[in-house]
Specification:
Layout lengths: L1 H43 L9 H13 L2 H33 L1 H16 L2 H12 L3 H25 L3 H9 L4 H38 L5 H11 L2 H29 L4
Length: 265
């Protein structure tokens, strides 16, 4: 027993060390990028509207944060991402499950899905603006459409990855349809499904920004357009870094959720 406890303790300690090492590696990469940025800006002696210094961007960030500009536009983009992501994930999972289980639906609906996804979102965004208007609805629709396809494919592949002998076992145990889904299909599809959700959450940021580029008077995408028109490159960097921070936070949140859900493996 003591030896088993010792081995378990060593395993936990090794996992902690690996976690700290990953954190330090990520921090080191950020520091390296900032150092290279500073070196290029100093050695190249570029004007501020071409490549501002990191401290200039930091000052612009705090100014935009203090006067409420950044928070106002970030809240709008976060609302679009949250609603679009929820709609895209839910609809993709439901349709993906149906396509995986009903060959008739797959035969008729898959070509339509592929055709819709073969068109660039940037090209579809103006049409969605015409259909849904200039408000939040069109941005949510663009965001949901961007998220939809990778999650749909992940759901289909994940559900079909369940081997037939497991279905036979559930049939022997007299499990009903709901129990088969919760106890077999969903856990078995979870690794592939979570991988597609990781892709979806990062694409959701792109979808929201594309929608704001087409028609918007608020949001981080609008702020990017505004800064570009004013040649306010520090503000442009602030908006871009905010979008990157949102995407990274969403990705890490899904990764943490995946880690918790996959403890059984």
């Amino acid at each position: 027993m003591p030896r088993r406890f010792c081995l378990r303790g060593n395993f936990i300690w090794e996992e902690d060390v690996k976690g700290i090492a990953r954190y330090l590696a990520g921090l080191l990469s950020v520091v390296t990028i900032l150092a290279l940025w500073k070196a290029i800006a100093c050695l190249g002696q570029y004007p501020s509207f071409i490549l501002p210094h990191p401290e200039e961007v930091a000052r612009r960030f705090w100014l935009a944060l203090a006067d409420g500009t950044l928070l106002f536009h970030a809240k709008v983009t976060l609302l679009e991402i949250g609603a679009g992501l929820s709609l895209g994930l839910f609809s993709a999972f439901i349709l993906g499950y149906l396509l995986a289980k009903i060959p008739f639906l797959e035969f008729y609906l898959t070509p339509l899905v592929v055709v819709s996804q073969s068109m660039p979102v940037v090209a579809l965004a103006p049409l969605l603006v015409i259909w849904f208007g200039f408000g939040l609805a069109s941005k949510i629709a663009v965001c949901a459409l961007t998220v939809f396809f990778p999650v749909l494919v992940g759901t289909i592949v994940g559900i079909r990855a369940v081997e037939q002998e497991f279905y036979d076992l559930m049939r022997i145990l007299r499990a009903n349809r709901w129990q088969v889904f919760w106890l077999l299909e969903l856990p078995a599809a979870l690794p592939i499904l979570m991988g597609s959700v990781k892709v979806g959450v990062t694409l959701s940021v792109i979808g929201a920004v594309v929608g704001e580029f087409i028609a918007a008077d608020r949001g981080l995408g609008f702020l990017v357009n505004l800064a570009r028109g004013l040649f306010d490159t520090p503000l442009l960097f602030v908006a871009l870094s905010s979008l990157a921070a949102i995407a990274i936070t969403l990705y890490l949140g899904v990764a943490l959720l995946e880690k918790k859900l996959m403890r059984w493996r």
